[in-house]
Design a protein that fits this description.
CATH class: Alpha Beta
Oligomer: single chain
Structural class: alpha/beta
Largest sheet: 5 strands, parallel
Helix content: 55-70%
CATH architecture: 3-Layer(aba) Sandwich
Number of helices: 9
Distance between the termini: 24 Å
Number of strands: 5
Strand order of the largest sheet: 2-3-1-4-5
Order of helices and strands: EHEHHHHEEHHEHH
CATH topology: Rossmann fold
Length: 217
């Protein structure tokens, strides 16, 4: 099973992801572990990956990519993927490889859209974590011991970057609730209760898949 967690910065994605992974005995793919895996597999610098993950190319980078494609020494032919598209594909491959070995929890990277919606033969539980901006600012400032103004700047930059990433690579809205089986507001529920709900649903779904045909007697 793949538990795919989309989240707003400061809404508790890491806390919930770690708890769900522990409850399932699943591999956890967060930003840090994905960067380490990609760097080891493809020899990409970790600082480059940290800047590119969950980021769409800016206008200048997109122009360069378009010019490179337009001037390629080929007649009309296949569109060559950019380096950023190759990174997205590599992340998808890592997730699917881990899922073939057992349960995996993925935080971010486009949510269920990364997987091409729901891959055949693999159970996917997509969830979204949201919270009010003021609450998220408070959570981020406390967690990283930073000034609230800096926390606000980080949240504003990250929220916009993730929206652009989702639109650029998957042509959809990250916060369209129709994509998710569970949408949790960690501010109104409280992080502890939201985590309990997420782990409860994930473990119940995983247990159901282990039952023999016809269910338990």
């Amino acid at each position: 099973m793949i538990v795919s967690i989309a989240r707003e910065l400061g809404a508790g994605g890491r806390t919930v992801g770690e708890a769900v992974a522990e409850a399932l005995g699943a591999a956890l793919l967060d930003e840090r572990s994905v960067i380490e895996e990609l760097s080891a597999r493809h020899g990409l610098p970790t600082d480059y990956l940290a800047m590119r993950l969950e980021r769409a190319p800016n206008a200048g980078e997109q122009l360069i990519a378009d010019l490179a494609a337009a001037t390629a020494m080929l007649p009309v032919g296949p569109a060559w993927p950019s380096s950023d598209e190759l990174v997205v594909d590599a992340v998808r491959n890592i997730v699917l490889e881990r899922a073939a070995l057992g349960d995996v929890v993925v935080i971010g990277h486009g949510g269920v859209s990364l997987l091409g919606w729901r891959p055949a033969g693999i159970l996917v539980l997509p969830m979204l974590l949201r919270a009010g901006r003021t609450w998220r600012i408070e959570q981020l400032a406390r967690r990283y011991a930073i000034d609230p103004a800096e926390a606000r700047r980080r949240i504003e930059r990250t929220d916009e970057a993730r929206r652009r990433f989702q639109r650029h690579y998957f042509d959809c809205d990250l916060y369209d609730c129709r994509q998710y089986d569970i949408v949790l507001n960690t501010e109104s529920l409280g992080l502890e209760r939201a985590t309990a709900i997420a782990t409860g649903v994930a473990t119940a779904l995983a247990a159901r898949t282990l039952q023999p045909a016809g269910g338990a007697s």
